[in-house]
Write a structure and sequence with these properties.
Layout (H helix, E strand, L loop, with lengths): L2 H33 L1 H25 L2 H29 L5 H22 L11 H5 L3 H10 L7 H7 L3 H12 L5 H13 L8 H6 L4 H16 L6
Helix pairs in contact: 1-2, 1-3, 2-3, 2-6, 3-4, 7-8
Main location: membrane
Pfam families: Sugar_tr
Membrane topology: Multi-pass membrane protein
Length: 235
């Protein structure tokens, strides 16, 4: 192929991840309610493993299309898990630790980027013979989660509000927070359940039309946009 076509293919390989992330994040709300937070995160590991296989064997098969498909699937998983992980971690944490627990996602992203850059060095896996291995390393965290997450309970809030399973919610709370009096937190969940009874799930269009969260939405949009324009990804 010509030099222009090679540049186009590389650009597509890089940018297709963001398109997959958009698709994954837009479907996260539906999947998290349909399957539950825990099952949704377990389900999201399978596209990751498939993407690792596609990218890892793309060099043997001589197919750049497998790279594109693998990056797309990896992006879908990233969009799904980033949204659902925040929900699961926040809903499983006690009130006093909820803010600190939510921050762990940003910390994990920063650590993941650092590990990715380190593995991509020429002295590690960033050479012609080993780059397929580098592209397949996202299978490792997926396998770790598949092996460990089944031992954790589902989100207490999901069990109580979406599944109407108060007994399961009590069991999950005891497993996560230990023995003790947690009725105040459960009463808050019950009050929330009563407050949203009969309300339909809000769509993306409803979010943009809701004046109650407009300034929060504008603030988040500006912060995220400025982060992309600062050049931090290039650094």
């Amino acid at each position: 192929p010509s030099e222009e076509m090679i540049t186009l293919m590389w650009s597509f390989v890089v940018s297709i991840y963001s398109i997959g992330g958009l698709l994954g994040s837009m479907s996260a709300g539906y999947v998290s309610v349909r399957l539950g937070r825990k099952k949704a995160m377990l389900f999201a590991n399978f596209p990751t493993l498939l993407s690792a296989a596609l990218m890892g064997f793309s060099w043997l098969c001589g197919s750049f299309e497998m790279l594109i498909a693998g990056r797309l699937l990896s992006g879908v998983c990233g969009g799904l898990t980033l949204s659902i992980n925040l929900m699961y971690a926040g809903e499983c944490a006690p009130w006093k630790l909820r803010g600190m627990t939510a921050i762990t996602a940003s910390t994990a992203i920063a650590v993941g980027k650092f590990v990715g850059f380190a593995l991509g060095l020429r002295e590690v896996l960033g050479v012609e013979a080993l780059w397929p291995v580098l592209m397949a390393t996202n299978a490792i965290p997926a396998l770790v989660q598949l092996l460990t997450l089944p031992f954790f309970p589902d989100s207490p809030r999901y069990l109580l509000i979406d599944k109407k399973d108060k007994e399961g919610c009590m069991k999950a709370v005891k497993q996560l927070w230990g023995d003790g009096d947690h009725m105040a937190e459960i009463d808050d969940m019950v009050a929330e359940q009563e407050a949203i009874r009969g309300e339909k799930t809000k769509s993306l269009c409803d979010l943009f039309r809701d004046k109650g969260v407009r300034w929060q939405l504008i603030t988040l949009f500006l912060v995220c946009s400025c982060m992309q324009l600062l050049g931090v990804n290039m650094v």
